[in-house]
What does this fold into?
Amino acid sequence: MAEAAAGRKRRTQAERTAETREALLDAAIRLLYRKGYAGTSTEAIAEEAGVTRGALHHHFGTRVQLMADVIGRVYEREKRAYERIAADTGRGARLADWPEMLWEVLSRPSGLAVLEILQASRSDPELAALVAPMQARVEQMSLETIKQQFGSGEDSEMLAGIRLFVWAVRGLSIAQVLAPDPADMRRSVDFLRLLVEGATNAGVIDSRGRPIVPPAG
It folds into this structure.
């Protein structure tokens, strides 16, 4: 007992702050997944995290700031998840690997929690003002990661490909909740992978997803 108490005392203020922030972010993600954006109040988040509402406001200021930070934190975790999948399975080097990899990561509860925030921002100007810049930063970081993997190219074309893949899979993750057989959504992911493989093998698109224009004549 005494050793455990001494161990707790050795935590720094920065460590305690980080732990509280992490607990609040995790609580928000769980509630967003279970109850949706409307049901994820600051009171509910604080109770879920086991802290006071005062602690929540101390660390995040407002509910909308917390929601914007959820998007950033989830992206950080998703990036690590892709890196683990690549390290464990060797996937990720081919464009056709990505529909399945995205599905494995974005269909998790945290991915659906982010969708709740993004959808809510459509009709909440205060939330949109924070979420839009955060989403733009996430897209830019995703673009830089993909450029490291596949080489540089026209940013607008590469970003168009990223958006198509990400939002196709995000849409399927919503459909998964409503479908009588969630496994049907996995078949759609497989179909997307086959389309990408076919287009790449046929020389319609290159390894970065850019259209290949045949030489004139």
Observations:
- The chain is about 75% helix and 0% strand.
- Residues 4 and 18 are 20 Å apart (CA to CA).
- The two ends are 82 Å apart (CA to CA).
